[in-house]
Amino acid sequence: MVFASSSLMSAYLNPLPQVELFSDRQWIDAMLRFEAQLAMAQAECGLVPQAAAQAIAQACASVALHPESLAAQARQTGALGMAVVAPLQQWLQRHAPEGLPWLHWGTTTQDVVDTANAMLTVHALEALQRQLKGLQQSLLHMAHEHAATPVLGRSLLQPAQITSFGLKCAQTAAALGRSSAQLQRLAAQALCVQLGGAVGNSAALGGDAMRVEQALARRLGLKACGYSWHTQRDDWMRLGMEVAVCGGSLAKLAKDWALHAQYEVGELCEAARGITSSAMPHKRNPVHCLQALAQTKAVPQLAATLLACMDQAHERALGEWQAEVVHWAQLWTHVHAAAAALCAAAQGMQVHAPRMQAHIDSLQGVVFSEQLAQVILPLLGKAEAQAAVALCAQQALQQGQPLPALLVAYLKAQGHAVSQALHAQLHAAADVQAAAQASALRCHELLTQMSSAGQPAPLNESIA
């Protein structure tokens, strides 16, 4: 069974390949730890002789398991847990036979893998949360610094109204903060010991099942939920779906930053890293955004596959659970890599505010069409006011003249007197800095809300 890939084709898309998530070594360590701590928990509860538990723990510390041989054995039985137990049995037979009757007692192979998976997911969650926190702090810093920096708001990829770059950063930081909090809340329910035995009723342990489960959970740093979740995967899946939602938020950020970083747009750029094109030295490719987008492409399909694995028959799945274990690891690995890529991008991100302003200026005020139509509405009525603005907006772009000035000329040509007050209203309606203030206000409100909710403050800054 392959749980994670370390191939060349996947490694270059991961900015933190040294961070192990669901690796073969971690799987083996976690499954051996389950067997050792189960015996110790049963001894703690007076069900297994202390000497036998110590022998089992010694076996788990001494036996050398190799991924290739484990996979080969598991192919014959369809049960990875059996491939782990067999070498332990052999070691005990040779070195400490007193532990042999108690090895793997009261449990089943799915208990081993599910509990090991929960242990590895604790580690994956911690790793993901570190990257989310780092990314969120960088976003909050940019939000604070650029709360009132005007930037074009784009709707259907077309220029719309003025917003602020800081608000865009704050909105993303808030979304990531919601995912971070939700992941922590769902993890508290989902990351549980699995100790159901053959058919999920803990029959072998009888009335002592709960005590053993609680002792084992305490030793492994997991929750004791008090029931088997062999084929009832709802809490587990809710956690996985939130990881996928987080991946979606990361993909949205990567796409936005990549669009801002287009050469002809030039509003953002990642830190310089030398030549990034073999043929065109001028290019400055957004490599970290590329990595994040590549990593998140598989996330929706992985989420769908995990949901498709929920129809697990009766008390033990035939194929669905086995598929889930593989794709679960892939989901976490992809989302962690995407978060790490964007965290790296954010730390070196260069914001080109003059370029943002230049794009606004090049549009000659047409992005203020809604506000300008409202100013002249009392003179012309709604329909004619909108028609006049649409006509003059075309002329503004074609002739390179400000839209407010063309509207003044239009009104005069229609026989309307244009007072100084109306002049002032038209120019005020097209004031870039004033337009950005609405977004600046929303930005500071979001920063305050996040601070009140205990989320990170901007790096080296206090929220105003």
Short description:
With 464 residues, the chain is mainly alpha-helical.
List descriptors.
464 residues; mainly alpha; two-stranded antiparallel ribbon; 18 helices; 64% helix; elongated; disordered C terminus
Kindly state the percentage of residues in helix: 55-70%
E-strand count: 4
Overall pLDDT level = 94
Please state the structural category: mainly alpha
Strand content: under 5%
Distance between the termini: 53 Å
The dominant shape is elongated
Radius of gyration: 30 Å
| Distinct helical segment count | 18
> Ranges with pLDDT <50 over ≥5 residues?
1-5, 459-464
Structural overview:
The protein is mainly α and 464 residues long. The protein is 64% helix and 4% strand. It has 18 helices and four strands. The chain has a two-stranded antiparallel ribbon. Strands 3-4 form a two-stranded antiparallel sheet. α15 (382-399) packs across α16. The longest helix has 37 residues, at 109-145. It is elongated, with a radius of gyration of 30 Å. The protein starts with 7 loop residues before the first helix and ends in a 12-residue tail after the last helix.
Topology overview:
Blueprint: H1 8-11, H2 24-44, H3 50-62, H4 67-77, H5 80-95, H6 109-145, E1 150-155, E2 158-164, H7 165-190, H8 209-220, H9 234-260, E3 268-269, H10 287-296, H11 299-308, H12 320-347, E4 350-351, H13 353-362, H14 369-380, H15 382-399, H16 403-413, H17 420-429, H18 432-452
Antiparallel strand pairs: 1-2, 3-4
